[in-house]
Design goal:
Blueprint: H1 21-34, E1 40-43, H2 49-60, E2 65-68, E3 89-90, E4 95-96, H3 99-108, E5 115-118, H4 122-126, E6 133-138, H5 144-154, E7 158-166, H6 179-189, E8 193-199, E9 202-207
Parallel strand pairs: 1-2, 1-6, 2-5, 6-7
Antiparallel strand pairs: 3-4, 7-9, 8-9
Bound molecules: S-adenosylmethionine.
Length: 208
């Protein structure tokens, strides 16, 4: 049966987030096709939009998704920045907090048996990581330091035949930030991956 977002366990259009339909579908297909190689891991869950696509695929295959996010928002989500959402701001702590909304969405989507939230910075979460992964999806911080740290921390854990996906690839600097594109170029030059067709702004590679 071909993919339709209507078959997802929750209305993805109602989830706050930063993912186009065709990118979500590509994540779903990649997670479905690689679930047999190991669990899926994403860096940057925000309110769980991408996690629902990945989780729905992994649930079908009895696999799991590790969803890493410190839930304090990226640079562009902070108070006064372009993508700040005051509904997701913890007034008491004076910090962003997307975890409550993320949990609400996972529960609503019936994915609590499939998605393991890791509420931590990506680099910290990777410190003792040794499990080979069927798929890694990088959509965390978009500063060069953050993107490089994510690439260094996680790309090497993708199993042979598995998928590395990187969001927000903009070869034209007038269209978007260059940090994800920089790690996309690193992956392409690494000799570790075969480049797959990009879907909208979602870069995809297969580990060879
Ligand atoms: C663009 S949003 C992710 C969007 C999400 N994938 C979606 O589908 O809507 C980026 C997320 O990365 C998280 N983040 C940024 N830097 C991080 C880091 N170093 N470690 C963990 N999470 C980080 C932010 O808290 C934010 O929720």
């Amino acid at each position: 049966m071909s993919f339709t977002k209507k078959n997802l366990p929750v209305d993805v259009d109602a989830i706050k987030g930063f993912l186009a339909d065709d990118e979500g579908e590509a994540l779903f297909e990649a997670a479905l096709n690689t679930a047999g190689l190991g669990p899926c891991l994403e860096v940057g869950s925000y309110c769980g939009k991408s996690t629902v696509y990945l989780g729905a695929a992994c649930q079908q295959k009895n696999s799991i998704v590790y969803a890493i996010d410190h839930h304090r928002g990226s640079e562009e989500h902070q108070l006064g920045e372009e993508y700040h959402d005051s509904d997701l701001f913890d007034e008491q702590a004076q910090l962003m907090d997307t975890f409550k909304e993320f949990r609400r969405i996972m529960r609503k989507a019936n994915l609590e048996d499939t998605v393991i939230p890791i509420v931590a910075a990506s680099k910290l979460a990777s410190t003792h990581w040794s499990t080979p992964l069927g798929m890694v999806f990088i959509d965390g911080g978009h500063s060069l330091d953050a993107a490089m740290a994510d690439y260094r921390a996680w790309a090497g854990h993708v199993s042979i035949g598995g998928i590395l996906a990187i969001h927000d690839i903009f070869p034209d600097p007038t269209k978007g930030g260059q940090a994800p594109y920089t790690i996309w170029r690193l992956a392409r030059a690494s000799g570790l991956f075969e480049e797959l067709p990009t879907v909208n702004t979602l870069g995809l590679f297969k580990r060879i």
